[in-house]
Automatic annotation (TrEMBL):
Protein name: Methyltransferase-like protein 23
Keywords: Methyltransferase, S-adenosyl-L-methionine, Transferase
Family per record: Belongs to the methyltransferase superfamily. METTL23 family.
GO biological process annotation, one example: methylation
Gene Ontology MF annotations: methyltransferase activity
InterPro entries in alphabetical order: Methyltransf_16, SAM-dependent_MTases_sf
One protein family per Pfam: Methyltransf_16
Superkingdom in the source lineage: Eukaryota
Record organism: Citrus clementina
Transmembrane helix is among the record's keywords: no
Length: 208
């Protein structure tokens, strides 16, 4: 007779062997924009924990229609591994992921995937920035960020939280050569303030 504990350990080891992380790439050479989405999959599960072909196709459609989805409110029903919803979030949509509330392992995996792709912290960060700027009129938030995949998301969140960028410069443009040669990547420096324009004024200026 096997002990209960050993059976549990054996099941956990099996789950580990069945779990993998797949990478899904979205590239457009014409405008040099690209990013990748990492998805945690478990082939032991029947439905919610692996990427279905339909999901890959829908995610690619969202990517190719990204300007349509930028700034849109999106709800992914039965999201599972959430690939299409994560792509939508990367291109600037305000995304809500949903699935069966009884599938706890699927919901937990959705949170882990969001964390892995750094899609759960930006909203909280911008809410904090807005609060601090509102508490200190005339203040400026100055930050640097590595421009890899979140550029469209950052633009959307600035609009969502009533912020605007008043200065955006290449991080290497003012760096001494002896410091710049030790770094790499596309690093931007941004100065962000509260946007005091009304929504009507903002939309009008965008159209021009």
């Amino acid at each position: 007779m096997r002990e209960v504990g050993s059976e549990k350990d054996e099941d956990e080891m099996t789950d580990k062997h069945m779990t993998t992380v797949s990478q899904h790439y979205f590239v457009d050479e014409s405008d040099k924009s690209s990013f990748s989405i990492a998805i945690i999959e478990n082939m032991k599960e029947e439905y919610g924990l692996f990427v279905w072909p339909c999901s890959v196709i829908l995610a690619e459609y969202v990517w190719q229609q990204r300007y349509r989805f930028s700034g849109a409110n999106v709800v992914e029903l039965g999201a599972g591994t959430s690939l299409p919803g994560l792509v939508a979030a990367k291109v600037g949509s305000n995304v809500t992921l949903t699935d069966d509330s009884n599938r706890i392992e699927v919901l937990k995996n959705m949170r882990r995937v969001c964390e892995m792709n750094k899609l759960n912290s930006f909203d909280d960060l911008f809410a904090t920035i807005t609060y601090l700027l509102q508490s200190s009129p005339g203040s400026v938030f100055i930050t640097t960020y590595h421009n890899r995949s979140g550029h469209h998301l950052i633009e959307f969140l600035m609009v969502k939280w009533g912020l605007k960028c008043v200065k955006l410069v290449d991080g290497f443009s003012f760096l001494p050569h002896y410091k710049a040669r030790e770094l790499n990547g596309n690093i931007q420096l941004a100065e962000i303030v509260l946007n005091h324009e009304s929504p009507e004024e903002t939309s009008t200026s965008t159209v021009r």
